[in-house]
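pls ignore typos typing on phone
adenosine-2'-5'-diphosphate + seq
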Amino acid sequence: MSAFYKEKVLSVQHWTDTLFSFKATRDAGFRFQNGQFAMIGLEVEGRPLLRAYSMASANHEEELEFFSIKVQDGPLTSRLQKIKEGDTILVGRKATGTLIPDNLLPGSRLLLLSTGTGLAPFVSLIKDPDVYDRFESIVLVHGCRQVAELAYGESVVATLRDDELFGPLLSEKLAYYPTVTREPFRNRGRITDLISSEQLFNDLGQPPLDIAKDRIMMCGSPAMLDELKGMFESGGFLEGSGNTPGHFVIEKAFVER
Ligand code: A2P
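k done
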């Protein structure tokens, strides 16, 4: 048995010069938990060329979806950005990752903090009815340099708001907070600053950070993750893992592509 499924590309959407998303068929045997990642890629010169990608689709969905950067001289993404409907991609059989609700202690508010393509696992998680059962409220923060980089997230959230099942859940429980650092936008600033200044919570009209209630998942640039981890740990928050649930969990948005 091959270590990979061969899947067909169903559609590709380019959001900016540096960001695209695509959908592919999903083998009925491919199981994953929402928030996890798998190795995916292309066959290049007869050999698999793979990188870790979070599934942006939820595990109840029939198709797979991924959100990717385009690195001009990146071994994989220089090629992957050219895929078209009908092309074949490889999907590793084993999904893994720490951004799963079981790695968190019970809590009432879930903060999903992302930059760039670190949004992807949270796109999967906000399509998980179990997440809405576990938490009274969910805050999805997506930080980017430019407004255009928010487009995929904006589109996902807008589609879910119109969904028969998820529309009511989103309006009751989900606060979506896109923020931009390098041009004008209604929300501005780095996630670290928005949390330490409490501006995020003030803007949302929500209470400040509370270790008794808040559980956190973060995915994005290593520098942001380091800073956030330090901030939360100095407040007594503990990192969770597969063995020990904690107050927060972390996954790097993989950038060497
Ligand atoms: P900034 O524009 O101030 O660098 P990138 O495209 O470099 O991955 O960055 C994505 C977003 O993450 C940008 O808005 C960027 O802000 C922000 N960012 C980068 N480093 C940090 C950090 N150490 N803490 C918080 N946000 C960061």
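The CA atoms of residues 219 and 251 lie 5 Å apart. Residues 222-234 form the longest helix (13 residues). more later
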